[in-house]
Structure formats: structure tokens, C-alpha cells
Amino acid sequence: MSALLHQELVQAPEETLWVADENSKPLLHQTGFHFPGDLLSNRWDIAELAENTVKRNFFNDFHFEELDRKYRRVVYTVSKEKAVVHHIINQAPHFLGEGGELVLLGGKQSGIKSYAVTVAEHLGIEKHLKKHGNEYVSSNLITHVEQDKSVGEFEYTELQVLPEIGKLYTKPGVFGWNKIDKGSALLAQQLTTELPRDRARIVDLGCGYGYLSVQLAALGDFHFTATDNNAAALLACRKNFAVQDIDGIVVPSDAGSELQSEIADLILCNPPFHQGFQVEGDLTDRFLQQSARILKDSGTAIFVVNEFIPLAKKGPRYFSQVELITKEQGFCVYRLRP
């Protein structure tokens, strides 16, 4: 995908906006790569990687109004989250204008064929899809802009309340945004037996919309640092901290790498295991490594992972104690100590 993406980015780069979601990361790692255009991403790690590689760099939850200009081309490798793709399709006509081009890229498994149909119908044009091996490019010219027309069933920018547990806010763009993750729910069930002392410092690593912090905050008086790589998750988590009057901060970070060392009495973590559409083996290692650095010598980390993630083998590289607390519904909860 990197070669195909690069091929599209070199066409009129100064007039191109690169909408860079998780699948754009490999290109930014390439030695000598430079893009003399603007980049917009909802991923903190991508924004950090792009800092000295692009002309202008924007990190937000795809708030296109902050870009202060229009473009002739937008190049976008479609995201794993359907709501994000629909949001990009809906916004593109407004920051491109008539005569602009929206270029979508994706592999076979990304849903790119369906998105090519959706965007063509949305713009009232013929579908244009080219195959390059197992990858596809959908090029779409904006012939007119309909102000009130949109695709998708959700208003992307709006925070919504999860009905299951009252006033817990979430939004499209957060992975698993419209449900309570089964792994996180299983970890939350263990919190009553893993309570730290009052005023303990808690780090919620990969916080999502803040479910684990909200559950623990109801059990005692603690100070929280919640962190995530995703701009939508940070927005939702900040809203929940404000509504629940939680003592703490919500900050962007890539697996906790920006946090200070030895600050946490307790770490809560439900690490992701996908990078884009691929299972990335080192994601768990990165979360474990950063947790070992962030945790105090007297602290504890509680991880929940899918049962196929070999945390029992990976954990001892970073922690002296790795103990399985429970295994249910395809998930394992571990207690880790320095």
C-alpha cells in the first residue's frame, strides 16, 4: 500500500491534503520520505511521525474547518472504522469544492469496493475503481456540492450516550464506540479486589472513551491519567471525566510513551492488537514495555487481552510477576508487578 499511496501523493502535492489514518504509518517510516503538502490525522503517533516530514501537520478528530483552506486533491487510505470513512466522504466536497478530486485507497479486505460505490452515489458520478494487485484506487471528481446530503447512519461529530450504563459518553471514531467492550467489562469486574490506596495515581493506558477510569472512580478517591492515541477517544474521555467529576487529566500518547517514568500506582490496560487491518504483534509489547517504565516499584498493572495474545510469555520480559487472574469469554486478565 505504501507504494500506491506514495504514487498518489506525488501528484500536485502542494494542492493535496493527505488524510492519514492508521494505515498510512508505513510510508512515514520510509527513510528520506517527504511530503510538501498538508497532513490531517486523528492518530497521535502519525502526527508525531509526520512532524518534520510534511509542510503542515494537523492532529484532531478530522475537524476540517481548522485547515483554513481548500484543496484540489484529497488522498485517503480508508480506515478500519466505517464511521470515519463516511465522515471523510461527507466532508470532502466542502473542503475540495467543485473540480476537486477525492482519492480513496484500500486493500481487498478494507471495503474499498463498497466505498467506491457509496462515494460515487453520494457525488452523483460514475464509479471509478482501478485495481493494482490486491489494492484499489477510487478517484472521484467533485462536480457539485449538495449541502444537506450525507452517507452513514451516525452524525460523526456528536457525542452520544451509551444506554446500558447511563451517562457514559462515546462517539463514532472510537474503536467499539457503541458498546461496552467485553474485555474491559471483565477487567472492571476485578477492580473491587485490586483497589489501591486512597489518592493513588492511576494510569488508564489506551483509555478509549474512559470506561475503566469511570468504573474505578466509582470505587474510591484516586487521581487519573487517561491516555489514548485516537483523537475521538480523547474527546469522549474528557467529556466523561467532566460529567463524572473525575480527578484527572486526559492526554494524547502513543502507548504511554509520552508519560513520565514511575508515576503510576496502578495501570489499567486493554491494549489494541490491530494496526489498521492487520494484527500487529508488537503492539502488546509496546504497551508492556511502557507500563513497566511508568509503574512505580510498588505498583500493579492489570491487563486484559484476547486469549490468543501470548501475554503470559511476553510479560516476563518486562515484569517479575505475571499472574493470570481470570479467563472468560475469550479474554484473559493478568496482574503484573515489577
Automatic annotation (TrEMBL):
- Record keyword Ribonucleoprotein present: no
Example of a GO MF term: nucleic acid binding
Q: Which GO annotations describe the biological process of this protein? A: methylation; rRNA processing
Q: Which InterPro entries match?
A: DNA_methylase_N6_adenine_CS, RsmC/RlmG, SAM-dependent_MTases_sf, Small_mtfrase_dom
Domain named Methyltransferase small is located at 167-335
The UniProt entry, under Pfam families, shows: MTS
Which superkingdom? Answer: Bacteria
Give the keywords, sorted.
Cytoplasm, Methyltransferase, rRNA processing, S-adenosyl-L-methionine, Transferase
Name of the protein: Methyltransferase
What is the species of this protein? Microbulbifer okhotskensis
